[in-house]
Write a structure and sequence with these properties.
The complex is a heterodimer. Chain A contains 14 helices and no strands. The two termini of chain A are 43 Å apart. Chain A is mostly helical. By secondary structure, chain B is mainly alpha-helical. Helices cover 72% and strands 0% of the residues of chain B. Chain B is built from 13 helices and no strands. The chains are: A mainly alpha, B mainly alpha. The interface between A and B is large, with 104 and 102 residues.
Amino acid sequence: MKPDLKQWAVPGQWLAPGALLAAAMCAVVFLWSTPFLWMLIASFRPDPGGGLGMASLFPDFVPTLQSYRYAIEDGYWPLWFLNSTILVIGTLVVQLVTISLAGYAFARINFPGKEAIFYIFLLQLMLAPPVLIVPNLTTLVHLGLYDSLIGVMAPYWGSAFGTFLMRQTFRTIPKDFEEAAIIDGASWWQVLRYVLIPLSLPGLTAFSIVSVVYHWNEFLWPLMVINDPDKMVLTVGLVSFAQGAEGASDWGLIAAGTLFIMAPLFIAFTAFQRQFVNSFMSSGVK
Amino acid sequence: MNKPTRETPRSFRSARPYLLLLPAFLCLAAFTYWPMLQVLLASLSDKKRVGDSGTFVGAENYFRIFQDAHFLGALANNALYAAGTVIPSVLFGFLFALALRETTNLSSILRSVLFFPTLVPLVGAAAVFIFVFMPDIGLLDYYLAKLGVSATNWLGNPDLALVSLMALTTWKNAGYYMLFFLAGLQGVPQDAEEAAKIEGANWLQRLYFVIIPMLGPTFAFVMVIALISAVSQIDHVIVMTDGGPNNSTSLLLYYIYQQAHEFYDLGKATAATVVTLIALLTLSFLSMRTVERKVHYET
């Protein structure tokens, strides 16, 4: 019997190898999702520190919101949410401007040195920013941006990945549109603002999703830049919060806190699955 | 007759592309190129702190790190960690893509569940995996005990701690890599597979002789992004093990972080950064070449 990968899409073949494969994949995916399932169940458990039964994946109890209540009381969630939101938006807005301008120059204008400059930009794709934490921290100190959210954002304002993505996106737009606008007397700025940008929304969305997810989840860089508890972001807050709860073996509390930080992206992902998947596929050039 | 004044002077027009590139370029220069130069210079001087003047000491800092058992340990750990995360996560990504290749209602749900760990912050995953790996009461031991396996101190045993971190990384990244393989599989022409089928090739032969060769560029590319992540992601090390026990989970970037943040040894931190950057650049050039090859394939 030959297991044919294509057969299992055909309905009505329940004992075919395809059905077997589907069943096996369901089992694997269940196994893969157990950390999430556990987190969800643990967060509703009435005795969240409780010994041996804590790991059980069967909710054999009356669910309670107690862990969530304690989590809310223990952490500075509104502040951390606010700081993370400021960080993510502040990074993205500037990025969108710089990558659109630079992407436009690379896609539409011919100028001396274009190729060399393009390769200089591309070099950044090969450097993972976290590796440069030591010198970048020095630069922030010199610029007086140490211990500020602006300092966390600044290194990401010029994104080579975004520039590259916008260049590709602009190049897929036929030049006829712009030429028509120019004949009507539009300036380069009007062409960019009213013709190219509206036609590049898929590219801009793709970049935005990857950028937001990356910066919402980033930990090491904000940990190094921020000292002031009032400027702490969610990831750093979660770790300090979890370390306290871990000392008390309060696993329900950790689960609830982790669910807080995941919630916005989880909701967005559920609503816009296709966009998320496409964005992350384009992030491969990063 | 006067032309409308909106016409821009010629000199402005020729400067325009550079002005458009300037904002992005300034940021890249300030936080990528300048720091690279700075880190190189600092690694050759004896200054202990940011802002010290320091004198030129040649390769001394490099001798110091290569005589430092912690650095050599971190280098070895990172190599092991890279092998132990890249191979399983790429393999799982590939197998998942193969199994979920056809788009059905079921397969799109399963894909989403497998992809979801990509969106979870590494620190959040780490906080939860501390519990997964707890001896006795943790998720893993609780269910292993039902199979008759006795309690294991996953994160406390120097021989197992790095393996436990590898498991977390594999869990988190396999679904991301699956996306690239799903895209790659769409590019495998149906008629090539059909032809092989008519020739009597079984599914294993088709996989080995048709599908895998066509996915060559995808494999190489995904392996390189997996390698880059194995060098640049250490959030879970900070949260779960702090490099321990016995430095068994100290990776290169963790070493750099420690030298800069805890021991204030700028010489060692910068020399280690340069070594890491060289390793990373070598890997990334590989990636760029792969991307180029991939483009050639498609056109």
